[in-house]
Automatic annotation (TrEMBL), chain A:
Belongs to the cytochrome ubiquinol oxidase subunit 2 family. The chain crosses the membrane at residues 14-41, 53-77, 83-105, 126-147, 177-199, 211-233, 272-293, 305-323, 343-365. The lineage of its organism: Bacteria, Pseudomonadati, Pseudomonadota, Alphaproteobacteria, Rhodobacterales. This is Cytochrome d ubiquinol oxidase subunit II. InterPro entries: Cyt-d_oxidase_su2 (IPR003317). Its main location: membrane. Keywords: Cell membrane, Electron transport, Heme, Iron, Membrane, Metal-binding, Transmembrane, Transmembrane helix, Transport. Pfam families: Cyt_bd_oxida_II.
Automatic annotation (TrEMBL), chain B:
The lineage of its organism: Bacteria, Pseudomonadati, Pseudomonadota, Alphaproteobacteria, Rhodobacterales. This is Cytochrome d terminal oxidase subunit 1. It comes from the Bacteria. The chain crosses the membrane at residues 20-43, 55-72, 92-117, 129-152, 185-209, 221-239, 389-412, 424-447, 467-491. PANTHER family: CYTOCHROME BD-I UBIQUINOL OXIDASE SUBUNIT 1 (PTHR30365:SF0), CYTOCHROME D UBIQUINOL OXIDASE (PTHR30365).
Length: 387, 536
């Protein structure tokens, strides 16, 4: 017997679909508060030392958090090569925007406090704002576009093509529904960043974070509901119309897909998935109330629950679709036809099972060592060694 | 196939990768040097070593962050600019990249925060462990990325699947233990160690010339010279191993590196100097050293090394086989695999040459319609442009040997001549600081430019690997990266120079306070004011 046949191909595909979700959620839960803090930075800190307090709450951890994003890229490459190939080239200029913003961020953290000039520091503060707010917005915009379908084609060599002018393609991504999804994502991560700052700071920084965060939470709550209603009544779904061999070769062109009906059909077929949006709304509502009430640990946990619910609701609604094509629906990428080979999925699962527990263990240890509030005195005392 | 897109995509990849590689070698080596210094500190409890650790760690941090930032681009660029490549080989190539994230990136990135922020929060031994984990994590990442790169040079453990139209993994073990990858890994990390050793040596020499921070400088030179000597030897030995692997796996690259147009009777001579002429297929003004090439390349007196002209003839043969495979592939794909066993068998017999048929796509949409003249042109395309490879390789080797000489010199004086460094030697050590970066970039260039016209040797041509973007897309991002990276580079160099000029926070003469503080820490007296004071 061949070792990798221990698990059937379709089982491994579903497992990797779940792991894809785990990585995206892991990224949003950890790097999400880094982005949130970046987006809040100019508003929660009025003086240099207040901003340094905010930056130093994430100073020791942002680097590890950002690896969730990089690993997300690597895992999509390894487990879903067609998704990696089509999505990043299809969203080309949007990806460039995200990369540029995310490159600004590490440099901003590290270099901001290395010179005393006010102009230098103020400049980097805005760089950190861009590095947090732009990706938070663009990730939501991307999800909004994926729900509507993306205009790509596959030719008979399975080569991804995207007809059209590059400027128009970028502008096409900025349609009203996608922008609404962008607002959901940005406000949700700002709420998450505020929850983090509430836990890690005190005094004026904490007060401002709570005030802005509770507004952001309310915006996230309302826009998420609006996006759901719009999805139910204004956006066509996708359905597989041919028989799908769930154990078949990963070739999107072997199945046929129709662009029609409603995504909400998923809730009729699998009513249990309604738990995801319910958790999302409950988490956001409780986190918002926690921010207002000044609760610290529980607010961050509710915020995490809200993000978990919102992201999983998107995945569960679309299942088995991962990246539908509006231009050539048959080319749509689904769980059944856009994975790696049976053996690669198995090998990568073994690697993930070995390393994920180790990663979670040492990450938890690092957070434990760093437990406690960052204060103005801390920043002033260790002025050389902190950001 | 729009050739402008191919050239722009290559330019962008070369630029972003070579830029990324300005920071990586120093990260690889300096992380270990810092960890060595901290080990000495923890073993001896002498504050000077703690001061050294913190000083070099500051420079490490400034460099590390740009390595991380520019690495983000690399992880996503395959999908953005090389989407057909990503589809075609992602099943194999993606795995080491993901494992790199799981095994290496998480480790280095999670602990690097504690390395800088944890001095007051961890015991000395725990902090030392954290520093070593950062160093090990960085080096693991080099391992996995070179396994990925090694597969592009020598695609083992995989086969083409006509139903999914891509390469798929058949043996993970073969991919990981690819001899090309293993030789490349040790060669590359050793080059990183040399880079860091030359950097530490040069900066310390500058302090000595200026008469500043003498205690820090002389100890740093001793560490750099010993570590650098071992690494410089390792670079050359594993470079030779890499070359030996190339003899077997990438004959065309080897022939191009040596500008060897015709097969010579064994053992072949080594061309020390010459001006390769691609048109005439000859090397002018060549100075040959008999036997040397044959001995290095094959480690025997009788094995032949094939010349470019013979290899081109072989390519022509493989293109013709590839056309047969291409025809069968379309039949299999159209019938969704439901074809006669004869077609399948014929496809499998020629599948190894399918990539050669794709070379024709540059001239004709359907390789089956190719004329003899087009096949001939495609076969000629398998020869990379020789002179840049020939020269960058020679320059790299010369630099590699000069680092050995430099390190031997400083090692001898550090150990047996009472550290009495003459001023000219110190000045030279400052001047050569950029040299290892030049050598590293030349090495990268030799390996990757020498792989052309393929992204994956013999499997997928570069021209086919790109994304179907527009020239506008590429110009926007290329201009964006150039502008953005230039600004970041200027800022980085500015900060590096500022912090080198500034030197360590305190000189060793006034560190009695540190000693008391260290003893208090060991005794667990946490509330002692000296534990948290003074700011360093």
């Amino acid at each position: 017997m061949i070792l990798y046949e221990l698990f059937s191909f379709d089982f491994l595909r579903v497992v990797w679909w779940i792991l894809l979700g785990v990585l995206l959620i892991g990224f949003a839960l950890t790097d999400g508060f880094d982005m949130g803090v970046g987006a809040l930075l100019p508003f929660v800190g009025k003086t240099d030392v207040e901003r340094r307090v905010a930056i130093n709450t994430i100073g020791p951890v942002w680097e590890g958090n950002q690896v969730w994003f990089i690993l997300g890229g690597g895992a999509i490459f390894a487990a879903w090569p067609p998704l990696y190939a089509v999505s990043f080239s299809g969203f080309y200029l949007a990806m460039f925007l995200i990369l540029a913003a995310l490159i600004l961020r590490p440099v901003g953290f590290k270099y901001r406090s290395k010179r005393d000039s006010a102009a230098w520091r103020n400049g980097w503060d805005w760089a950190l704002f861009v590095g947090g707010a732009v990706p938070a917005l663009v990730f939501g915009v991307a999800v909004g576009n994926v729900l509507q379908g993306v205009p790509f084609e596959l030719n008979d060599m399975l080569m991804p093509l995207y007809p059209g002018n590059f400027i128009m393609k970028l502008l096409g991504l900025l349609n009203p529904y996608a922008l609404l999804a962008g607002v959901v994502s940005l406000s949700m991560l700002m709420m998450h960043g505020a929850a983090w700052l509430t836990l890690k700071t005190e005094g004026p920084v904490q007060e401002r974070a709570r005030a802005i965060g509770s507004v952001a939470g309310m915006v996230a709550f309302v826009t998420y509901i609006l996006a759901g209603i719009w999805l139910a009544f204004g956006i066509k779904g996708y359905q597989i119309t041919s028989v799908v061999p769930a154990n078949g070769p990963s070739n999107p062109l072997f199945s046929t897909v129709e662009h029609g009906g409603s995504w909400m059909q998923a809730y009729a077929d699998r009513p249990w998935i309604a738990i995801a949006p319910i958790l999302g709304l409950a988490g956001i509502a409780l986190a918002t109330m926690g921010l207002r009430a000044g609760k610290e640990v529980s607010t961050l946990l509710w915020s995490k629950l809200g993000i978990f619910g919102v992201i999983s609701s998107v995945g569960l609604t679309m299942f088995p679709f991962i990246l539908p094509s509006s231009k050539q629906p048959d080319a749509s990428l689904t769980v059944w036809d856009s994975s790696s080979s049976h053996q690669t999925l198995f090998v990568m699962l073994v690697c993930a099972l070995i390393f994920m527990p180790i990663i979670l263990a040492y990450t938890a240890w690092v957070y434990k060592v760093l437990w406690g509030k960052v204060t103005v005195e801390d920043v002033e005392r260790d002025s050389h060694s902190v950001y | 196939m729009d050739f402008g897109i191919v050239e722009l995509s290559r330019l962008q990849f070369a630029m972003t990768a070579m830029y990324h590689f300005l920071f990586v070698p120093l990260t690889l080596g300096l992380s270990i040097i810092v960890a060595i210094m901290e080990t000495v500190y923890v073993m001896t409890n002498r504050p000077i070593w703690r001061q050294m650790t913190k000083f070099w760690a500051t420079l490490f941090g400034i460099n590390f962050v740009l390595g991380v930032a520019t690495g983000i681009t690399m992880e996503f660029q395959f999908g953005m600019n090389w989407s057909y490549y990503s589809h075609y080989v992602g099943d194999i190539f993606g795995a080491p990249l993901a494992i790199e994230g799981l095994m290496a990136f998480f480790m280095e990135a999670t602990f690097v925060g504690l390395m800088f922020f944890g001095w007051e929060k961890l015991s000395p031994v725990k902090h030392l462990v954290v520093t070593w984990l950062v160093a090990i994590g960085s080096n693991f990442s080099a391992l996995w990325i070179l396994i990925a790169n090694g597969w592009m040079q020598n695609p083992v453990g995989s086969e083409f699947n006509p139903l999914t139209m891509r390469m798929e993994m058949t043996s993970f073990f073969d991919v990981v233990f690819n001899p090309v990858a293993q030789a490349k890994f040790v060669h590359t990390v050793s080059a990183g160690y040399v880079t860091a050793a030359v950097f530490v040596l040069g900066v310390s020499s500058w302090y000595m010339l200026k008469g500043r921070h003498f205690e820090l400088a002389r100890r740093s030179i001793a560490v750099a010279a010993s570590f650098g000597l071992a690494s410089a030897l390792s670079v050359v030995i594993l470079g030779d191993e890499s070359g030996y692997e190339t003899t077997h796996n990438q004959k065309m690259k080897l022939a191009a590196m040596e500008a060897m147009w015709d097969t010579e009777p064994a053992p072949a001579s080594f061309t020390l100097f010459g001006i390769p002429d691609q048109q005439a297929r000859e090397t002018k003004y060549a100075i040959h050293i008999p036997w040397v090439m044959g001995l290095i390349g094959t480690r025997s007196l009788t094995d032949q090394i094939e010349g470019i002209n013979d290899l081109v003839k072989g390519s022509e043969e493989r293109i013709r086989n590839g056309i047969v495979a291409y025809d069968d592939l379309l039949k299999i794909h159209e019938a969704k695999g439901d074809v006669t066993p004869e077609v399948k068998a014929q496809f499998e017999a020629n599948a190894g040459d399918l990539g050669y048929a794709y070379l024709l796509k540059r001239y004709v949409d359907d390789p089956r319609q190719a004329t003899d003249a087009q096949i001939k042109m495609a076969a000629d395309d398998t020869v990379p442009t020789v002179w840049p490879i020939f020269w960058s390789f020679r320059l790299m080797v010369a630099l590699g040997f000069s680092f050995i000489a430099l390190m031997i010199y400083f090692f001898v004086i550090a150990n047996w001549k009472g550290m009495q460094y003459p001023r000219w030697a110190l000045r030279m050590a400052v001047i050569v600081i950029p040299a290892p970066w030049i050598a590293a970039e030349l090495g990268w260039f030799t390996a990757e430019f020498g792989r052309q016209p393929w992204t994956v040797d013999g499997v997928l041509p570069t021209a086919l690997s790109v994304s179907h973007l527009s020239v506008g897309d590429l110009l926007v991002t290329l201009a964006g990266f150039v502008a953005f990276y230039t600004v970041l580079f200027i800022i980085e160099m500015g900060l590096m120079i500022k912090y080198i000029k500034k030197g360590p926070y305190q000189d060793v003469e006034i560190t009695q306070e540190w000693q008391t503080r260290h003893e208090n820490r060991l005794a667990g007296r946490k509330n002692d004011p000296l534990v948290t004071m003074p700011a360093e």
